[in-house]
Amino acid sequence: MFLRDATTCLLLLAAASFFLAGLVGLLRFPDVFCRLHALTKADNLGLGLVCIALIIQADSWHGAVRLLLTWFLVLVSGATVAHLIARKALQQGQTPWRNR
Amino acid sequence: MNDLSVYAAAGILLFFIGLYALFFRRQLLSKILAANVMGSGVFLIFIGLVKQPGQSTDPVPQAMVLTGIIVTLCFTAAAIALAIRLKELNEEHHSATRPEDDFG
Amino acid sequence: MTLLFGHLIDLLLAVSLTVLAWRLLATSDLFKATVLFIAFGLLMALAWVRLDAPDLALAEAVIGAGITGVLLLTALRHLDSGARVARMSGRSGRRSLRVLLPALGIMPALLVLLCLSSPHIRSTAGLTASVIERLDQIGTDHPVTAVLLDFRAYDTLLETAVLLLAVVAVWSLHPVRPIFSPEPISPAQRGLLRLLLPVLIMTSLYLFWRGSHAPGGAFQAGALLAAGLLLLLLSEQRLPGRWSGMFLRLLLAGGFMIFLLVAAGALVGTGTLLDYPGGGASWLLLSIEAALSLSIAALLATAVIGGRPSDRSTEFPPRRKDPAGEEG
């Protein structure tokens, strides 16, 4: 019981650090492509960790499946939306930032 | 003080922020958003005051707020259609009277 | 410890809702305001979860954040395209409104103080007990569904009428325009549609089925179905011309008409409007709900498209002409 709770806590803390990193990237990165990169990658991992942490606590298998499904749907729609935003930005003529 | 009163308090603030924006913003879309925010404030007051900690929420106000959410969407759709029509009429009027203005 | 965290989350949510509302109404960039409004809707859904109202959370997430968001973003394309954004004209009314400013500051402060300090402001009993008590007389186990379709069915009947009226109002204002940009849509978006549409339809059916005994029901199911329809429209799918005439109108009015028919039938049968006869209540409620769900989905989607279909049987919404032709 204790081990289960401790694992959940650790996973949630790790997830929070991913979310924090994603947030800092979103606020500090120079252009829309970098910000999308920070947001999607960090948030998908963070959400995955949250889902795993909650699956450990789930009391039935269908609750666990629902959590996994949530993660999967957010992954798919997040990736597509990031692609669409980046595509629109390219069409509008924004050039990706280069460190010179 | 009850722990869930914060939502009712936030609802009151939302209502007045919305009212302020409804009076003093000039753009029509902002006014529509303001009315939406006011509506959300009223719903929060409704449920925030009814909710007793440790009990399930009263179904009657819940059903009324559910109705309210749908009616808010109806209002928004109709108001936006009116705003777009108003803009079209303005433009027609404008281009009919002073056609050279568009390029000047 | 857990309680303290709960209080903290409540406080944080309430404060961020207020700040977000202030920010979205203070900015003059309408696109920013719209995006902030969608975020506001999602936070409202969280607040409903905290207030133990999952029905409202579902409705707010789909309607308040999702469908209203699409509606506002579509409107922005039309409103923002010209040089001048639609504004109220005339300055005279605003000057006199300045008198109200002190009241706008003092009133909320007083009310908030009253609300936070007085525990007697809330009613003690509420109606939960009376609703639960009468649940076994009607064909559903979920209190909110029972209130919506039985105890306060009159409200719901008129609500569907309002929904129908809103679409009539939108249709009477202008004919439909092409709604989305002429650029070809990305294959990734088609892929997402193919994946999400079955999931949305499944979830909608699930919510519909759940409505009889748990949070969910006709309105949430209809709203989710409308979200699916909007996703289809966003991917350049259209209602074929032969369906955009009578069929569409029947679909839009169907929920209200069946509800009204049942109400009238009850009036003839039992002498009271909307007083369902005892034995048949369950399947009656089910058929009303099914018709309502489909109608609500169609009504919400058409309200977002905005504008009536043209009288000749053409696709709805119409195809956008190629950009070169559109300039003229």
The beta-strand count of chain C equals 0
Structural class of chain C comes to mainly alpha
Category from helices, strands and their pairing of chain A? mainly alpha
What does the oligomeric state look like here?
heterotrimer
Number of helices of chain C: 13
What does this structure look like?
Helix content of chain A is 84%, strand content 0%. Chain A has 100 residues and is an all-alpha fold. The longest helix of chain A is centred in the C-terminal third of the chain and has 31 residues, at 61-91. In chain B, 61% of the residues are buried. Mean pLDDT of chain B is 84; it is low at 100-104. Chain C has helices at residues 2-26, 30-50, 54-80, 92-97, 101-117, 128-133, 143-151, 153-173, 187-210, 218-234, 246-270, 281-305, 323-326. The N and C termini of chain C lie far apart (67 Å).
Question: What is the strand and helix layout of this fold?
Answer:
The complex is a heterotrimer of chains A (100), B (104) and C (328).
Chain A: H1 2-28, H2 32-57, H3 61-91
Helix pairs in contact in A: 1-2, 2-3
Chain B: H1 5-24, H2 28-50, H3 59-97
Chain C: H1 2-26, H2 30-50, H3 54-80, H4 92-97, H5 101-117, H6 128-133, H7 143-151, H8 153-173, H9 187-210, H10 218-234, H11 246-270, H12 281-305, H13 323-326
Helix pairs in contact in C: 1-2, 2-3, 3-10, 3-12, 7-8, 8-11, 8-12, 9-10, 10-12, 11-12
